[in-house]
Write a structure and sequence with these properties.
It is built from eight helices and eleven strands. Helix 1 crosses helix 8. The protein is globular and about 45 Å long.
Length: 220
């Protein structure tokens, strides 16, 4: 049975992990018979957003605690997960990735990134294991690999974000939410999901299903 790490950035697309993308990832991993190792950093979110009003609330919330909502409590602190126990890694999207795991939402390609998250991604990659990234997560992947190598990926069809990702030494491929982009050489699979505005969950499901399938097919 394949064991796949899933890194979550909170709960809710404006300040954490995108819920639909997370659930669809978990669903397709389960249907494929894979075991999920969910993880998140034990630190506070950048901020908390009211998802009705779209405004900051002034609250303080913990990424690990919020992510546990999506996993029914079955989640680990990322620093407790050994890369050797994983066969692959997937990062669902949501603005939590661009706010909590890096500062891409605020600083674009000049952003910084969380060293703990980057270490997990690079350790998995350096062991020859596949990495999947959904929605805005490919921007984080591009930033992590910026000074190491050029990776092929997608963030969808938005020209502005695509240009930002391209400036990070990445080879950006335009892609609809129903599909995914596969970097065979680097074992990186990406799909835009809700990074394309106005999309339907049924279409997002198609892209995530393909991503999960491609990631699992790359496991040695």
């Amino acid at each position: 049975m394949a064991k796949v790490g899933v890194i979550l950035s909170g709960c809710g697309f404006l300040d954490g992990a995108e819920i639909y993308e997370t659930v669809l990832t978990l669903l397709h991993l389960d249907k494929a018979g894979a075991e999920v190792v969910a993880m998140a950093p034990d630190k506070n979110q950048h901020h908390v957003v009211n998802h009705i009003e779209g405004e900051e609330t002034g609250e303080t919330r913990n990424i690990l605690v919020e992510s546990s909502r999506l996993m029914r409590g079955n989640i680990k602190n990322i620093n407790e997960v050994e890369v050797s126990e994983l066969d692959a890694l997937i990062l669902p999207g949501g603005f939590g990735v661009a706010k909590n795991f890096c500062s891409f939402a605020f600083e674009g390609p000049n952003c910084s990134f969380d060293e703990e998250i980057a270490k997990m991604v690079l350790d998995v990659h350096n062991q020859g294991k596949p990495v999947g990234a959904i929605c805005i997560s490919p921007a984080l992947i591009a930033k992590i690999f910026e000074k190491i190598k050029s990776v092929k990926l997608t963030i969808g069809t938005d020209e502005g974000i695509a240009n930002a990702v391209t400036s990070l030494n990445a080879n950006h491929i335009v892609c609809e939410e129903t599909d995914c982009v596969v970097d065979i050489e680097n074992k990186i699979v990406t799909t835009p999901a809700y990074n394309i505005s106005g999309v339907k969950i049924a279409n997002v499901e198609q892209g995530i299903s393909k991503l999960v399938s491609e990631v699992l097919s790359m496991i040695s």
